[in-house]
Amino acid sequence: MSDRSDIPSGEDSLIARYFKPLATDLGAFGLRDDAALIKADGHDLVINTDAIVEGVHYLPDDPPDTIARKALRVNLSDLAAKGAEPAGFVLTLALRDVDESWLSAFAQGLGEDARAFGCPLLGGDTVSTPGPVMISVTAWGRVPVGRMVHRFGARPGDRVMVTGTIGDASLGLAVLQGKPAAAALAADPTAREMLIGRYRLPQPRNALAAAVRDVATASIDVSDGLAGDLAKLCAASGVTADIELAKIPTSPATASLLARGATDLEAITSGGDDFEILCTVPDDRRKALTEEALRAGVAVTDIGVIVAGEGVPRFRDAQGRAVTLKRLSFSHF
Amino acid sequence: MSDRSDIPSGEDSLIARYFKPLATDLGAFGLRDDAALIKADGHDLVINTDAIVEGVHYLPDDPPDTIARKALRVNLSDLAAKGAEPAGFVLTLALRDVDESWLSAFAQGLGEDARAFGCPLLGGDTVSTPGPVMISVTAWGRVPVGRMVHRFGARPGDRVMVTGTIGDASLGLAVLQGKPAAAALAADPTAREMLIGRYRLPQPRNALAAAVRDVATASIDVSDGLAGDLAKLCAASGVTADIELAKIPTSPATASLLARGATDLEAITSGGDDFEILCTVPDDRRKALTEEALRAGVAVTDIGVIVAGEGVPRFRDAQGRAVTLKRLSFSHF
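^ Those are the sequences you sent over. The predicted structure of the assembly is below.
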């Protein structure tokens, strides 16, 4: 054989160079194998898959390390909402070409997040595409046997609780796209950066997974818009909800844009990319969640109540009047 | 709320219509949840992820049911080579638009294969893309604890065994692309269809998973080219191999193209998409594999021997002379 054959192919070299250093879990076999092994003794594994596409879920000139983190974090957010502790993930990466500086930053961000969230890379596939970059992650996590928190299970009287703040990420995207919110924030670079950061870098609430598992009757991560995701939870649970719009938690930047008319409640509640946990909690367990959230440094807000009935949730303004939202959530199609 | 809000979004409707009927496993919760649950008691789970991209791994006008089957089967092939029994999969589907007839055929093919291979769909994500369609599958399978078959483990003296036939799929692609093989087969539509079928529809050797687990010291699925995949197995095992090119199993159609000079051994051994199992077996266990293969109706062929040493495998012609292959396998980059 020629010496040339000893040079690994571009794909192997790319994997060896960028991803092998991340695959330190024993079950990943240093990415020297085709598949990863999941030891599961005495617990359930929750598995989730979510993909992000260039120009759809992130912008082409977003920093590559935040693109990698976002690809992983959107999955971690689902695990958190299900009450699962992250355990590992596999990655499919479709690339147009090999841009070493992009890949290096991508892999570094991915590795840092894998360590920070205790969610090791166990395998993957790298393919070429003539189209936009696409990153698909399948992640799984552990829950005690039978303790996964579902979309279904919400009961009339349960309080509707949401972590963090809502609407920042979709406003961050609006800023990056030069929409009206951008002009309104021209004089406030700190607010701009905060909103853009919320778009580029979700903050999945994995610190609250155990608390959600302990107290929530139903749970979902808010990824496509609070109103639409709540509607899904209600439909799965066979109930509906009464939500007070004024109670939906917003950051000071978002509140200021709302006050100035540079955005509206419909955009806030139907915008995507919040990656907060929306869960339903019996009234007498609300305090347990709030206290755990306080310990974790994450806000958690009571925005309304589950009620018997069918149909999409009802939203009311500060005066108790019904508000009709024309749009509930982002949809790809 | 307006009645319009009760109409599910395009994405939900697409999932409900096409994929919910497939998700009959209890752990899929009828796709009403964000994540799937894997019960694992007393066994190891092997997890694998592989994606296929339109125009890269399949042709835009391939029948949609074969595209779906291929997306799943390329993953099943990895599980078979690892000695694992298929247990479930999740799917990420990136689409430019919603073409109902395409999706319907895609979902039907996927559902039929999921049933045929005992590998239920447990969840997924559907996203839009401005680029080519991409289908990413993460599949997992069960092996008894500690019994996953690795790429490493081959020992000097082990026989190198391969299932089925090699080279058909890459010739099928050549036919579809109108390359020289197409002209050579103009008068033989049966051979054309067979080769095209091998490209579009891999035949993963899951029937042999248990036998591979019982007798193989190392194993890999042949997806990027026999020569390159064998080189990977040898490198991982710290050995090399002596392969007799004339023993590499070919179909009558491929043998005829070879005889007529319409293809060559380099194209056969470095072409991708075979999805056969390449494994190493101690000499005294060879018979056990051959007998099990006979029962499963799958050919298995001894093509050479593992030898001590380093570097890429050595290939010899029928006269025992060394043959240098310029190219070992397909690489995306």
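Confidence is low (pLDDT under 50) at residues 1-8 of chain B. Chain B touches chain A through 82 residues (CB under 8 Å).

Shout if you want it in another format.
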